[in-house]
Amino acid sequence: MTPLAEALLALATGEMARGARVIFVSGPQGVGKSTAMAALTEAIPGSVVLGLDDFYLTRGERLALARDVHPLFGTRGPPGTHDVALLMETIALFKASGADERIAVPAFDKAADERRPEAEWPVLAGAPRVIFVEGWMMGVAADLSAPAGPPLNAVEAEDVDGAWRTYQEPQLAGPYQRLWNMADAFLYIDAPGFDVVKDWRMQQEETTRGVAPGGLAPERQAWVSRFILHYQRLTERLLAGARRPGQSVAVDRFRQPQLRN
């Protein structure tokens, strides 16, 4: 088990002892959430993990958002690109399920940029002991004044009239806050800063594509560098503490954890 998984297990076990059944786990891209969550499900019998990334809107729905609101919504990930209602429904199904029930869980094909057909969704046992929901922005607070501020980076500079940011904040204040309300506890993985997230995401891309460190083609490196900018504002907001109360584990740039409350 990785040090990060061990740290999260310690936090999760403490929350479970207090009776929590739905635990939201938040951490930036590339920090190692997926590996850590897989270890948690092995260490905690009867647990299930739902990933925010599996609950994106369909490609058609997101293309409509890009057409009707702002072209930046062509990139999945920011608030407004998820089917929050479907995730809430799935959590509710697990909470109400019996041990003999089986529940199909949505799955998203990132290579095809589309939700998988329902026939391909994984089927999990009901009545879980604990439901983990992991994602990069779980628990983040809304800031309705944010669209009035200056752009943080080159991607935000493309949002000339503020439509992209203006759409996101009410989404956070409405549907996403109602989703956060379903959690019994929040666990946060805190990076030392946004600058390391780019490095982690680049390493993640190398691993996904099976290339050696530093071996990504220049055009793919440029894609990752631009892609991560869509997440900067909310990642920094989370790190600044604008989020639901919870426990946290701070990691260094090598992803080595230090527990703290």
Layout of helices and strands:
Layout: H1 3-17, E1 22-26, H2 33-43, E2 47-51, H3 59-68, H4 84-96, E3 102-104, E4 108-109, E5 114-115, E6 123-125, E7 130-135, H5 154-157, H6 163-180, E8 185-190, H7 194-209, H8 218-227, H9 232-239, E9 247-251, E10 257-260
Parallel strand pairs: 1-7, 1-8, 2-7, 8-9
Antiparallel strand pairs: 3-6, 4-5, 9-10
InterPro entries: P-loop_NTPase
Organism: Hyphomonas oceanitis SCH89
Protein name: Kinase-like protein
Give structural attributes.
261 residues, alpha/beta, Rossmann fold, two-stranded antiparallel ribbon, 9 helices, 16% strand, P-loop_NTPase, Kinase-like protein
What is the structure about, briefly put?
This protein has 9 helices and 10 strands. The protein is of the alpha/beta class.
